[in-house]
Amino acid sequence: MATPDIVKARNRVRSSQPLIQCITNTVVQQYTANVLLAVGASPAMLDHEADAAQFAAVASGVIINFGTASSQQFLAADAAIEVAVSAGTPWVLDPVSVGGVDYRTSRIRAAARRNPTAVRGNASEIAALAGMGLGGRGVDATDSVDDVIGAAAALSSATGAVVAVSGEVDAIVLAGPDGRSAQVVRVGGGHPLMPLVIGNGCSLAAVTSAYLAAAKSAGLPITGASALEAVVAAHVHFAAAGHTAAQTAQAPGSFAVAFMDALYTVGDAELEAVDLRFEPTEVPA
Amino acid sequence: MATPDIVKARNRVRSSQPLIQCITNTVVQQYTANVLLAVGASPAMLDHEADAAQFAAVASGVIINFGTASSQQFLAADAAIEVAVSAGTPWVLDPVSVGGVDYRTSRIRAAARRNPTAVRGNASEIAALAGMGLGGRGVDATDSVDDVIGAAAALSSATGAVVAVSGEVDAIVLAGPDGRSAQVVRVGGGHPLMPLVIGNGCSLAAVTSAYLAAAKSAGLPITGASALEAVVAAHVHFAAAGHTAAQTAQAPGSFAVAFMDALYTVGDAELEAVDLRFEPTEVPA
Amino acid sequence: MATPDIVKARNRVRSSQPLIQCITNTVVQQYTANVLLAVGASPAMLDHEADAAQFAAVASGVIINFGTASSQQFLAADAAIEVAVSAGTPWVLDPVSVGGVDYRTSRIRAAARRNPTAVRGNASEIAALAGMGLGGRGVDATDSVDDVIGAAAALSSATGAVVAVSGEVDAIVLAGPDGRSAQVVRVGGGHPLMPLVIGNGCSLAAVTSAYLAAAKSAGLPITGASALEAVVAAHVHFAAAGHTAAQTAQAPGSFAVAFMDALYTVGDAELEAVDLRFEPTEVPA
């Protein structure tokens, strides 16, 4: 993959203002909505089963996160995913706390089998979803990103999704069509205060959906290299904003405010300053 | 209508501390509660169907918003509205995203037929509820305020409610008893950052309920001119706070913080500086 | 009780990072999660009835608050409490708005009979739960802390819980084994802006659970004097952060941000500067 044009990708989000249907946990709905607005997208948290499919048909992207899912939300997600898949609308799975409890895990695994465009989680979640780890205990990452690159590649190969592993250095992984090799893009710049603001991971998944939706409205495919680029660009946007916020804030309350500001004001130079590394890996047999 | 005494109206809210029952979407519950506290009201987000009617009987005002309504919330709203109407307690409908999806729309329309004291939405929502527009796509306003003054007047005539249309310049509309003419009050001072903070519209609906409740506890009628004045005063309070916040904040994270502060600290001169214009309009046949 | 070592207690929370299962109202989930992260704990808002018991078995502490409880949340709470009690995991009841409405009140009373480790509420809630008051109207305290010390002592005697009454000066009450005398610890330093930030009370209950969980993981009993100390320490942490926040913030928006920062940065000297008073009381017959 060539170095992606992050600035162009961000501009696409701002100009297309993608409408993102968020079926997500109630803890982070407000934060996620504000994050989407800050990057130029338009949030809608519609999660009633009676209306979810109809809304998914007009949404530009969908994000699914079962962090506090009610039975109604599970039904709404089923309906929205079905529409998104058949319409070719990008949908992103955030497998929060997969592996920790049985019922939620079964629902997340079922969703993962339905062709998500991207999956974003922390190292423990990605390992658990790939079937190789013990799962998180809450929303913590107890595994490290480096430990789960192989798991991420296997998950990408099994689902077709771009798989993003969040950590101090993020890893974005896409298995190749041969099923044996995978590309890995490392996005640096994570800050220790980021995990102390609840919803940063969940809202990054939503922004990932917005970047994929903007790519699609520009006529780009949301598979292969251009999907990988869109996911990387979303992560770069977050990393750049985190870097900016850390210049002025040293504690989580003021960091959250500065981060939201920085998502909105992020300039070209800040995006281009984020450290990107490209490396290949193998998909474990 | 004479120029309303906004300062007196704000003081009434602070001294009566109206208890506002908010059956509203989970995205904005926290923000709405903080906004109500900042203006001097007391929030209660009670939305269980078993208790909603009993609580509505002691509430000073009710606000209904179906943005993420569960089946339980719909039942709770039915019960609370019935009590509010029969007790003469002001209740405000925020028809968020009406017209976008069928089930929610049917529930909003049913609620609108139950004598809301006021309805507050963006231009697309007001047009959709009045049956003249195509509805919003999410919480965006795709129509302009000017486009929907006639629709707002028709909605006011049909429901008896004061109808508030939020935009860069808000329009507050009340149809006269003859059903053909309507008063329109324009409240200036909206700021481009306001729509980038999720919950500003929903919490304005809650504050509108607080101003109506405070008017009622002062012995004023919550129909006709004094209802119109209370709704205008709530919008002026928001506009003044937005103006103050914009003096110090240029991005949505810090704007939200400054806005909350300004709702709390807003002074007499700031309220009186908000631009108000009065004009008549006709109710479309 | 000797003066508790608040610094050591805070350090225990930071080093043990207790995982706190929060079955709490949707208004304050985000704020509570951020507060738990700021003090060094790990939040999980898991509230689905299918998974609640399984998760409670791995949680370090549980907090129950029925502020917006759905029927699903009531079932989840039943399951989580049962596991917590049989595993000896500390669980804290926040009886928000008990006494105001019948169904919620019946559920809160039923929970209170299941051996909570601590109960935290405002004066009206504690009085109502003890059966001696008229209950709150929303989340307001209409009684004063001083009025309800006897009620708190009776509630402590009846349930075995440490009972914390929040107010400008908090009172933490523990009835002795004789059922007639009780210890009272007063924690000063509350600030008038604290009740204007929604979720401060609910999140204090969650932090109380974190302090109890940290005590337990250090091998301390979570009954008697060491439970009392843990509850006091949580309240001191809050009071110190409130005091720090009030140095820079004069309105609720910026106060909430400064308070979150201060929870995270709170130093030894700030904790030790909080005013503590010890006094005995009697349990009313």
From TrEMBL, chains A, B, C:
List, alphabetically, the InterPro entries matched: Hyethyz_kinase, Ribokinase-like
Pfam families recorded: HK
E.C. code: 2.7.1.50
Give the catalysed reaction(s), semicolon-separated.
5-(2-hydroxyethyl)-4-methylthiazole + ATP = 4-methyl-5-(2-phosphooxyethyl)-thiazole + ADP + H(+)
Q: Which CDD domains does the annotation name?
A: THZ_kinase
Q: Which UniProt keywords apply?
A: ATP-binding, Kinase, Magnesium, Metal-binding, Nucleotide-binding, Thiamine biosynthesis, Transferase
Q: In which pathway does it act?
A: Cofactor biosynthesis; thiamine diphosphate biosynthesis; 4-methyl-5-(2-phosphoethyl)-thiazole from 5-(2-hydroxyethyl)-4-methylthiazole: step 1/1
Name the Gene3D superfamilies on file.
3.40.1190.20
Necessary cofactors: Mg(2+)
UniProt: ATP binding residues: 120, 166
Molecular function per GO: kinase activity
What positions does the entry give for substrate binding? Answer: 45, 199
Q: What does this protein do?
A: Catalyzes the phosphorylation of the hydroxyl group of 4-methyl-5-beta-hydroxyethylthiazole (THZ).
Annotated NCBIfam families: PRK09355.1
Identify its protein family.
Answer: Belongs to the Thz kinase family.
HAMAP family named in the record: Thz_kinase
Q: What is this protein called?
A: Hydroxyethylthiazole kinase
Instruction: Look up and give the organism this protein is from.
Output: Brevibacterium daeguense
